[in-house]
Amino acid sequence: MAYHSHFNSEAAGRFQLLCGCPIVPLNTPGGSGVSAAARAADGAVEAIDPVDEALELYRPLSLFKTFDVRGPGDKLLVYLILFINSCLKRLAERRPPPSREEARTLLFSVAHDRFPMPSQAGFPLGSLMAQPASKEEEDSLRIYLRQCREESGRRLVERMYGGGEGAAPNRHWLAFAHRRFMDRAV
């Protein structure tokens, strides 16, 4: 039994879709608590956002070689799981393991690396997401995915180094760095 995104059923009418991916508000620190690029049509803030959902489901889903995509929320979930996996690989290949601050800096730079978009070579979900209808749609999706990547990296560091500033990374998270969800990588 696989776990699926709870944004599948809500995405149809509540959130804007870009290339088949729902633009769900992110619970970010500071001001309003919601990212500027992703606001629900009705202005409501979700208790759990796609980044929290991906981090919660990462370890159980990383054991799967196949995944039945049931809706737009699953597309975003799969993308974030693949990104989290690439973050863990970057952290695991560092010897000795990076400190909390080094990990935060490394994952911030990974989030801001140039990444392929739907319809471009190297996009890991090429068959799942539609091509952008316009340059504006592509730019909006790139901004949203970059925000998701940045938040995923930030929250992953918080989960991995839960013990404080001098804590070592949680080896149970790093053990999943060598798993390949759906035999794909970002």
UniProtKB/TrEMBL annotation:
UniProt cross-references to SUPFAM superfamilies, sorted A to Z: Arp2/3 complex 21 kDa subunit ARPC3 (SSF69060)
Family: Belongs to the ARPC3 family.
Subcellular location: Cytoplasm, Cytoskeleton
Record-given protein name: Actin-related protein 2/3 complex subunit 3
GO cellular component, one term: Arp2/3 protein complex
InterPro entries: ARPC3 (IPR007204), ARPC3_sf (IPR036753)
Source organism: Tetrabaena socialis
Subunit structure: Component of the Arp2/3 complex.
Residues of the signal peptide: none
Molecular function (Gene Ontology), one example: actin binding
One BP annotation, GO: Arp2/3 complex-mediated actin nucleation
Key words, A-Z: Actin-binding, Cytoplasm, Cytoskeleton
Function noted in UniProt: Functions as component of the Arp2/3 complex which is involved in regulation of actin polymerization and together with an activating nucleation-promoting factor (NPF) mediates the formation of branched actin networks.
